[in-house]
Specification:
Elements: E1 5-15, E2 38-41, E3 50-54, H1 56-63, E4 69-75, E5 84-88, H2 98-108, E6 110-118
Parallel strand pairs: 1-5, 2-4
Antiparallel strand pairs: 1-6, 2-5, 3-4, 3-6
């Protein structure tokens, strides 16, 4: 089977799955707990597809210690279903507590960037 590849320019933000939620709130759309390399993808991209951020946004993310490659594992709210990509900052990342994860997400802010989605395993 031929792999499908989609390249999009999206608004990229970072989020802290489970921060400030009630117990049990740390499950992504794919049914797994958040992990480094998980992304919340547009609803037009199937869960399980590979994600690669390229260009200037990737360089900035790498300097900040954020992942630039991984997998579509979570979803945006339906009202933002096609415009955005969200980088997960899970608890396991650098051993940060919720407040440190929130600070890193706010420091990233929202940036435009080129993202490649790939269906190959």
């Amino acid at each position: 089977m031929t792999a499908l590849v989609i390249t999009l320019t999206l608004s990229i933000s970072a989020y802290t799955p489970g921060a400030n939620t009630i117990s049990g709130g740390r499950i992504m759309a794919n049914g797994q707990s958040p992990y480094v390399g998980a992304f919340a993808c547009p609803r037009t991209v199937p869960l399980g597809w590979r994600v690669t951020i390229i260009g200037d946004a990737a360089a900035i993310a790498q300097r900040m210690g954020l992942p630039t490659t991984g997998w579509c594992a979570d979803r945006f709210h339906a009202r933002h279903s096609t415009c955005c990509l969200d980088i997960a900052i899970p608890v396991e990342m650098d051993g940060m507590d919720d407040q440190e994860r929130l600070k890193r997400a706010f420091a990233w802010g929202r940036r435009r960037g080129v993202v490649i989605f790939d269906s190959s395993p």
